[in-house]
Amino acid sequence: MLINQDFSVDRSKYIGGSDIGAILGLSPFKSPLELWLEKTGKKINQADSLPLRFGSFAEEFVASEYSRSTGFELVHDESIYIHPEHPFMSAHIDRFILGDGGDQPPTKILECKTANSFSTGSWGEAGTDQVPMSYLCQCIWYMAITKIQRADLAVLFGNSDFRIYQITQDQALENLVIEKAITFWEDYVLKDIAPSAINQSDCHLLFQKGDPQKTVNASSEDLELSKRLHLLNEEMATREDEIASIKQVFMSAMGDAESLLYQNQLLATWKEPKPSYRLDSKRLELEHPQLVTEYQVPIQNSRRLVIKHLSLGEYA
User: Fold this and answer.
1) SS percent in the chain: helix, strand, coil, step 5
2) pLDDT at 21
3) Is 88 domain-assigned?
4) Do 164 and 253 share a domain, yes or no?
5) Do 167 and 279 lie in a common domain?
6) Can you tell me the distance from the alpha carbon of 66 to that of 103, in angstroms, rounded to the nearest whole number?
7) Does any domain span residue 166?
8) What b/e string do you get for 68-107 counting C-beta neighbours within 10 Å, with b at 16 or more?
9) What is the pLDDT of residues 228-281, one digit of tens each?
10) 67 and 43 in one domain?
11) DSSP alpha helices (H): ranges in 211-273?
């Protein structure tokens, strides 16, 4: 099923391929809660941003590089594809890959990506399906909706490493992805119930305001976690002392030298940073108090969690 509409306008009405990684808890950019806030209209996703504009710009280059490398003809169709059984499931395909000669129906889907050159460790050899799980599930999602059973994922690392990965339909994974999407849509979005927090940022989003009149009782498990946290903090302090000691050894060895070499390879540097400037707010407040008042704006600070270390007597 096709819908010829502006995809960005209707994004909140559908789950798209870029959403499935968040639903599964695989996305490094968005949690299930953040996605739920967008789909329920509680948080407006920025439709025009630098990363989005760059992604759109880079997509064209990656697609053209794929076509040049493989000789395949591509079709850019900006329609929205909808799953025949689940109308909230949508797909916005980067490119369709035509069959031999270019006069055959699409045989594969092309998904275009860019990645940091330092992230290659998360990817396998070119030609395999060893790609980050969020991208694998995105391709599986598109295949489930279009009923095309193969997808190529083309990725440009930095500006010098171009690879093509090949992904085929995996029915078991497809069933799992669809099941999780249905649960997210029906149990959370339609019922307007927030999914559980999976990180501290989620907790800040869910519970932005505190009630000073409200307290809750800690469980024995909470108490054990507080003791464990205290031990971890002590270990961290010990590690920080060790780090400081090692740095002091390097600084003493270097003296006034700015570089430390080992077998003609740079091991460490100790240089003055470029000069930076800060506003002398105290002087400004003394000499021009009217300006300070005029330009002051309230700051909404997030809640700060402080976990106390109880005495042994209180543990009894």
Assistant:
1) 45, 15, 40
2) 95
3) yes
4) no
5) no
6) 19
7) yes
8) eeeebbbeeeeebbbbeebebbbbbbbbbbbeeeeeeebe
9) 999 999 999 999 999 999 999 999 999 999 999 999 999 999 998 888 888 888
10) yes
11) 220-254
Q: CA 84, 147, 74, 95 torsion: positive or negative?
A: positive
Last residue in a domain, options 180, 206, 232: 206
5: left (phi over 0), alpha (psi -120 to 50) or beta: beta
Q: With a cut of 50, list the residues of the chain below it in pLDDT.
A: 2-9, 314-316
Question: Would 110 be classed as within a structural domain?
Answer: yes
Side-chain half-sphere exposure of 290, counting CA atoms within 13 A: 0
Q: What angle do CA 81, 86, 88 make, to 5 degrees?
A: 65
What stretches of 57-216 adopt beta strand conformation (E)?
Answer: 74-75, 80-82, 90-91, 95-98, 106-115, 150-157, 161-168
Listed residue (131, 153, 128, 179) closest to 24, CA to CA: 179
Full domain range(s) for residue 240: 220-315
65 and 126 belong to one structural domain: yes
pLDDT at 45 (0 to 100): 67
> Do the beta carbons of residue 111 and residue 151 sit within 8 Å?
yes
Alpha-carbon gap, residue 51 to 102, rounded angstroms: 33
Burial (0-12, 13-18, 19+ Cβ within 10 Å), 111: buried
Please write the tens of the pLDDT for every residue from 118-152.
888 899 999 999 999 999 999 999 999 999 999 99
Return the half-sphere exposure (C-beta side, CA atoms, 13 A cut-off) of residue 147.
Answer: 6
Same domain, 238 and 191: no
Amino acid at 5: Q
CB 50 within 8 Å of CB 44: no
